[in-house]
Design brief:
Blueprint: H1 5-8, E1 38-47, E2 51-59, E3 66-74, E4 77-82, E5 88-96, E6 101-105, E7 108-110, H2 118-130, E8 132-143, E9 154-164, E10 176-182, H3 186-191, H4 198-211
Parallel strand pairs: 4-9
Antiparallel strand pairs: 1-2, 2-3, 4-7, 5-6, 5-10, 8-9
Length: about 220
Amino acid sequence: MQPSDKEMRQARPDDSAGFDIFTASSDSPPRMTIKPWKFISSKLLNKFRIFSVRSDIRLSPRTGREHDLFVIECTNWCNVIAITPDQKIVMVEQYRPGSDTVELEIPGGMIDAEDSSPVAAGVRELREETGYEGRDARLLGEIFPNPAIMNNTCYTIIVEDCRCIHPLELDAGEDMATRLVPVADIPKLVAENKIGHSLVAVALYYFELWQRGLKPTPKPDS
């Protein structure tokens, strides 16, 4: 089972060139171009309810040796920065079994096959988990959750002028409470580790960049 074309692509336009965004100086370490490892073969190891595990054999360009690398195959995810008219962010509290903690997060979840886009998935997750709906839903950012061992992408959606107009549609395995958090309180909550989910912290950083005019967003989905 060979990885898909999407999995083989990297974030930069030209993989063979490596990153060239660093400024050299007299005390800089020697430049070294990092290239993708050549794909040899792949084998599915096991399938679970929400992810699969495969083993990829790849060739190290530095040593010329083959390595057995494990990859967790997951569907793509989305999370949502939902802003109310009075500048509060719609957040949720829910139990997370991995950390065995109750976490303060933003709405989000898996992108279903029926979702037409990450934006559509974000709008659906926001409605199901909180009952909120807004306008101008659009993509704010995307990131690899853990590119060392996972093959998926997490998309952050921003939705403005959000109001609670729907009943909750929680799955049987979901147990959460909606919290409205003032935008101004977010940096302090992150600094004090009151927000402990890494992908939520990334989404909130995208939001901060957007507020500062450093993260433009495309036009909303029609």
